Amino acid sequence: MRKFFLLLLVLPLFTHAQTKPITLEDIFKKGTFRGEFVRADFGESQAEPELNPEDLKDESGESIGRPQGTIWSAAKPDLVLIKKEVESIYRRSTKSYVYLYNTSTKKLIKLEDEKVLHPSFSPDGKKIAYVKNNNLVLYDIATQTKKPITTDGEWNKIINGNCDWVYEEEFEFTQAYDWSPKGNYIAYYRFDESKVKEYEFTIYDNKYNEQYSYKYPKAGEANSVVEIHIYDVNAGNNVKADYEQGDIYIPRIKWTRDDNTLLVFWMNRHQNDLKLLATNAKDGTAHLVYEEKNKYFVEINDDWWFLKDGKNMLYTSEKDGYRHLYMNSLDGKKSIQLTKGPYEITDVNGIDEDNQRIYYTVAYPTPMDRNVFETDFKGSQPKAITEGSGWHRLVFNKDYSKYFDYYSNLNTPQTVSLYDLIINRGNQFTSKLEKVEGDNDKLKEKLTEYGYGKAEFIRVPNSKGDTLNGWMLKPADFDPSKKYPVLFCNYGGPGSQQVSNRFGAVSAWHQLLAQKGFIVVSIDNTGTGFRGEEFKKKTYLQLGKYEIEDQIDAAKYLETMPFVDKNNIGHWGWSFGGFMSSLAITKGHDVFTAAVAVAPVTNWRFYDNIYTERYMRTPQENPKGYDDNSPINFTDLITGKFLLIHGLADDNVHFQNSTQMVSALVKSNVDFQSAYYPNKNHSISGYADNTTFHLWSKMTNWILKNLGNENTKNLTAPDSKLKSF
Length: 725
Fold this sequence. Notes:
Blueprint: H1 24-30, E1 69-72, E2 79-88, E3 94-102, E4 107-110, E5 117-121, E6 127-132, E7 135-140, E8 145-148, E9 158-160, H2 165-170, E10 177-179, E11 185-192, E12 198-203, E13 210-215, E14 225-232, E15 238-240, E16 248-255, E17 261-268, E18 273-280, E19 286-293, E20 304-306, E21 312-317, E22 324-329, E23 335-337, E24 345-352, E25 357-362, E26 371-376, E27 383-384, E28 391-396, E29 402-409, E30 412-424, E31 428-438, H3 441-449, E32 455-461, E33 467-473, E34 484-489, H4 508-515, E35 519-524, H5 533-537, H6 545-559, E36 564-574, H7 576-586, E37 594-598, H8 609-616, H9 623-627, E38 641-647, H10 656-667, E39 673-677, H11 691-707
Parallel strand pairs: 34-35, 34-36, 36-37, 37-38, 38-39
Antiparallel strand pairs: 1-2, 2-3, 3-4, 5-6, 6-7, 7-8, 9-11, 10-11, 11-14, 12-13, 14-15, 16-17, 17-18, 18-19, 20-21, 21-22, 22-23, 24-25, 25-26, 26-27, 28-29, 29-30, 30-31, 32-33, 33-35
Helix pairs in contact: 1-11
């Protein structure tokens, strides 16, 4: 699940004049509120050449048409890999037909007669690697010959060079091989899935349907056995990296600047012990260069940089209670904490090794904001590049003398400005505006034309003594003497954030509901991110407990407001948010009168082991933690209205979650409504087949009907042309 965030077509706020009603067609068909795209172009690198589709003819003279993806060689600028008929597999993986094209000779070669994964050039541009039928293949460009690096690949058994399902989803990568810096070696993963249990679902067609079966390790179940191999491209030798075997994970491998040294990231199954092992590419021997332990769990990310001196690495860690920057020597003898303070680093924007400066983004001055700072390799006093409230995202040029600032706040669309970064005597920074590249004037006009409401931040006390961050969107024609229904829009999962000071945190759909007479709120509960480790990890071993208690506390707090209709408070969520909505209508039955749960987890025993055990350990170790906060165990508490939605081909949160919830609802004799979408995965999307529009129409109509009161409006034309659900 790993922080699944539903990306809505966004747009909040502006004026109180409501000249045009927002429609579902505006949001999900017309793109009425689409913002302006501005590319961060400093003119430093030549843009990728335009490929003329008429030149792209295969060996038989047939045109292959327009590319669907290109990969250019950094070393050989006339060589490009072209993808055709790209097919999604899971969240991050795709396969396609791949062609090698030479722009000088106009020669086009199809690498294989079937689709492959992860094609890439070697650093010197002389070879290509890719994955075919779970095997890693090496292609020599000069001789046009192929050589299999592995031969034992087999569906649902052995995978080479590509991730198994759970690594792809939870460790967030899919290409499971990497060239060494000079291209002398390829390090790759080998997954043995033999002992992992299979999950199966039906793909529906017009005849007899078909079953799709794949390996999916649920909480407490066996994982793939993972090996890291290092292949010598020139000698053809293959060695196995040496590390402690057992029930462990290898969440990352990364080459250092040394072509002979690979860092293997070793982690125990509880995910609270991380070791970095410097591995010799020639013989696979290894030694420990870094270890980090945590009383909860260690977060895995890609925040690791190996400096040009070949001796040091930069990384981020939560080991002092907040995510900060550190520098360690690769011999393990030196460690420096470069940043400190009660705030979270959210991104590293650039590392200027020549001048020993690091530019990084911080959730500051509040967890909802983002500002960019600079420090040096000694951890000197940080210097602010941007300041104030709002959301800054900076993109620097190569020598860090200029940057693009993508800035917005909760109620203002993004403005993109180009700045000169001037470093004065005493290492003081001054930003000089060069020009505004984009200010979204057309979008701002649309917001005025459609009378967007203005959202506001709220602070909500919970029953544990904490204060929760939230935002509230009231109807544009808000009348404090009236009573308005409230809809909570919540995700709430570990490390996530929905309450942020950026444009788009409040979406166009939220604005539509506000126009119909709803107060829309979002509350970031305990367990969400950017407020320090203890706030985020307080939910350890009891996922759902504090989270839903906070949502209930927030609903009770809103009940005290004179303009809130306490008889109509609803909760909407997707994925982890659907889990929260299912808890809201069960454990929160005394305050939440309606809930919509989309693709919800209903019992963490049904979800994958890497994500679930990171926060819960195994069901065998922690049965109470699993059962005490599972919605399926509390359906007898439901007194409100409930809508349950799921895609039947959801490879992530299995449809099984909803079927088990339905069984519990039936056993408790609870009336409910449901909608199921055949052949749709976790995103339940599709524009060509109308799925996206249908889904959002279904939810919107249901909310208006089951949560509305005398002060709300139904959908107006053209939405009213939709058939009733």
